[in-house]
Design goal:
By secondary structure, this protein is mainly β. The protein has helices at 11-19, 30-38, 52-55, 321-325; strands at 3-6, 42-44, 47-49, 59-62, 68-69, 79-83, 89-90, 103-105, 111-112, 125-127, 133-134, 147-149, 155-156, 169-171, 177-178, 191-193, 199-200, 213-215, 221-222, 235-237, 243-244, 257-259, 265-266, 279-281, 290-291, 313-316, 337-339. It has a domain at 1-128 and 135-143: Leucine-rich repeat, LRR (right-handed beta-alpha superhelix), CATH 3.80.10. The protein is 8% helix and 22% strand.
């Protein structure tokens, strides 16, 4: 029998969430839960907990008017769901290691501290419509989570979703910064929506092997190895980007078209191993971008035909053609420069 941990809460508000929890022995509906709640003994604070929790059975945590879930509050417990409609802050490691938890319903949460849900291997659904800040390793190794929708989140911390092997969709409507390793090795990730993101840090999407394309309308910085090893990535559109870090797209063997019309800096090996890179658009630059060593190593632009079957081209505005042709680094690529 699944026990419950609860205090005051809005039945209608969380009824739908509770009905999705497969671990419960009864398909609870709000009206059916009311009598049971009245029988639960008080064990600490304003919360109530079924005695069987102490014996080790699984349980649901519900805290309707709790404003915070403190650090390590449920770490390692046999928790199947966390339903906290009023909680604004989730403390460090609050639910870490809750390996049975499948649902987290946190509609008022604004901030989640480091490793709060780390190693919640069964977690499938997270509801965080107001969350603005995620700490590092928040969802580290939550391998069952398939989609993430964080419409108010402004920053994704380092390692937040690293190794999410089931994650397919990410929606980050308000996010401006995606930090180091945030989505690294999310092997199933196929869709990323981040319309206002300005910074993608090092290895943020490294080895996301099913990511087919990326559009970053406001991104100005793409960090080192940010998309390295994204072997199915075929196109990149970043109209505001000015900086591409070392090995940013290294080994993206399906990458054919890149549009970076304002880029001013290409770091070393940025596109090395992109064996199908045939089109790079730099049509909006005001000065010739700096070009480090081996940026186009083993690419059609750098002279490697390989599977592409032809040499690649760098497209620039006609007024900039001569400047490119006479600048160190670009001079050796004169035959690849095309004025449009």
């Amino acid at each position: 029998m699944t026990a419950m941990l609860t205090n005051r809460w809005n039945y209608d508000d969380i009824g739908d969430a509770l009905r999705t929890i497969a671990e419960t022995d009864v398909a609870y509906r709000p009206a059916e839960m009311a009598p049971a709640i009245g029988r639960l003994p008080s064990l600490f604070g304003s919360f109530y907990m079924h005695d069987s929790f102490i014996a080790g059975s699984s349980f649901i945590a519900v805290g309707g008017d709790a404003s915070m879930v403190v650090s390590s509050a449920f770490s390692g417990r046999r928790l199947t769901a966390a339903i906290f409609p009023g909680a604004r802050v989730i403390g460090r490691e609050a639910f870490r290691g809750c390996t049975l938890m499948r649902v987290a319903y946190l509609p008022s949460c604004l901030s989640i501290d480091d490793a709060a849900f780390q190693d919640c291997a069964a977690l499938e659904a997270v509801f965080l419509p107001r969350c603005r800040t995620l700490g590092s390793n928040v969802f580290y190794r939550c391998r069952s989570l398939k989609s993430v929708n964080l419409p108010a989140c402004e920053s994704i911390a380092s390692n937040a979703f690293q190794y999410f092997t089931a994650l397919t969709d990410v929606s980050l409507g308000a996010c401006r910064t995606i930090r180091q390793n945030a989505f690294r090795s999310c092997f199933s990730l196929a869709n990323v929506w981040a319309p206002v993101c300005t910074t993608v840090a090092g290895a943020a999407f490294e080895s996301c092997i099913r990511l087919p394309s990326i559009t970053l309308q406001r991104c100005t910085t793409i960090g080192s190895s940010a998309f390295s090893g994204c072997v199915t990535l075929s196109s990149v559109d970043a109209p505001e980007c000015t900086y591409v870090g070392e090995q940013a797209f290294r080994g993206c063997r399906s990458l054919g078209t890149v549009s970076l019309p304002r880029c001013t800096t290409f770091s070393s090996s940025a596109f090395s191993g992109c064996v199908n890179l045939v089109s790079l658009y730099l049509t909006g630059v005001q000065s010739v971008p700096s070009l480090a060593s081996d940026v186009f190593l083993s690419t059609p632009i750098g002279g490697y035909i390989g599977t592409a079957g032809r040499y690649g081209s760098v497209y620039v505005e006609g007024r900039m053609l001569l400047a490119f042709q006479t600048t160190v680094g670009w001079r050796s690529l004169s035959s690849r420069l095309v004025a449009i």
